[in-house]
Amino acid sequence: MSHLRVDQLGVLVGERLLIDGLDLSIDTGRFVGLVGPNGSGKSTLLKSIYRVLAPLRGVVSLDERDIASFSARAVAREIAVVAQEVPTDLEFTVSEIVMLGRLPHQRSLARPTSIDDHHVDDALDQVDIAHLSDRSWQTLSGGEKQRVLLARALAQQGNIIILDEPTNHLDIRHQLELLTLTKSLGTTTIAALHDLNLAAEFCDEVVVLNNGAIVAHGTPDDVFVDDVITSVFGVTADRVVHPRTGAIRLLFSTLAAPCLTAPAPAPAAPDLEHPLLLRGAPS
Amino acid sequence: MARSTGLLHPRLLPVLVVALSVLILASLVVGVAIGSVRIPVSTVWEVVIAQVTGRDTSVPSNEQQIIWQLRVPRVALAGLVGAGLSVAGVAVQALVRNPIADPYVLGVSSGASVGATMVILFGVFAGLGSLGISAAAFITAMTSMTVVYLIAQRSGRLDPLRLVLSGVVIGYVLSALTSFLVFQADPRAAQQVLFWLLGSFGRARWSILPIPAVALAASVSVLFVRARKLDALASGDDAATTLGVAVGRLRIELFVITAALTAVLVAVSGAIGFVGLVVPHAVRALVGGLHRRVLVVSALLGAFFMIWVDIVARTVAAPQEIPVGIITALVGGPVFIVLMRHRDRRLLR
Q1: ipTM value
Q2: In terms of CA atoms, which chain B residue is nearest residue A77?
Q3: Domain B10-348 has CATH 1.10.3470.10
Q4: pLDDT score of A151 more than 80
């Protein structure tokens, strides 16, 4: 149980107030996508939640308790993070790295307990990298590294998982697998995503950020509409429905394109060849 | 038990620790026996046992003097400094998260050399006798580290890159100051300064041993308790924060430990290079990157290595004594290159 709330958050990065007066509430067990163009404040918001950045004003709270009052360890027991930054030259094996996820639960001089071992083995199995457990970090591919970091976050057993653009280094199969896996855990998840179609497919809720403010927050169906996409991302999108999964798919084109041609006629009758294809998004 | 990234299986770690400890004890005895006057190992034992237990011995008193008042403290100091520099190397590499950092990257050796030079050339602190150099070196080393800290910190947080840059820049400035002082002085004094800078255990006496011993013991204990946090810090500041480590505070602790330990070691033995860089690397190649293992094995390997470096320094050009720093670099450089190439090959496989 962890209800996350952000109240009137203001975050100063360098000399710029990247986020100001932001409110957000995330219910337990939801899979929430954070989308927005580069520099919209996704990472800044997430970093203030996992306390790498200290907010200038406002409060981030877990179950009505201000996380600024938590110790670093206590926050780490609640929130597990898979960040963008991937270290390069670690002289650790995969299982040694995943064991670091147990750090917030361990005393400083204690050896790993059987509970720690159990969570590490579980995490390795869940991410399907048990066969890599003795491999050196430096010998892994980008995708394998990302999965190791996810396993470390799982071993942390937090009530909230934050994925800060976790799919950056992954091929399409591992992108889908990572999100499918994370969603199947049922843990509250906040994921910053660049790919709006991944967000549409996996998220219960989508939060659209632009210039450090929330522009829209709701189901993918409510949020991915013409107005929002055009004003925030500067592109137009045609909405279609995935013929098999039923999820929304967005087909992007540059903003200028539709102006060159006459407005498309409204579909008078369902297209018989493509019965699932709907022209234009509701606005 | 799972494997590590090192060459040695973790199951064999206790064997390594015991083997190194035995080798260090043996080297202590051999180190005392070898010198300008060669003394049989049995005599060394007899004197050491006589001194510790208060039993009578037939060994002539001048030989007893050489063994107990000069050689034993010297070999012990070599071991302490070797262990200390290696531990400081582990700490500083974790602090700035940079594998080519050594304890002197924070400007400590150039700071210490200013103080030592002033004593050697101008007789500052002359009243303190042979302790004068150590006292002055310690004071200027700590002063330069404080300046580096003040430059590198931003609202109480230490950024690794700023730390390295500040240390290097302050190091250049203070080296220039030392060079200027030496340039002004007569050549004989200049040679004395150079000899001090390159390191020697010739000034070892029982009276000064407790200082490096306490500094080493305190540093190792504090670092050992924080070993898991150092593991987390290796994966980056943000990652360590999300794993529950208060990174800002940990960095300051690491800085203070490295500064104080290195300043003490340089003050008693000069600025001996390369050990603090090479030993942690060699140890990681052997036992992997987990800091509990790296700390303990680095201390032991550093002690063992330095005792033998000192033996070589005393004997290779006897009766001339070669500065220790020359040998550490001559041996350490090739070892480092071999390790690096070996590691590359292992990773490519």
Answers
A1: 0.85
A2: B244
A3: yes
A4: yes
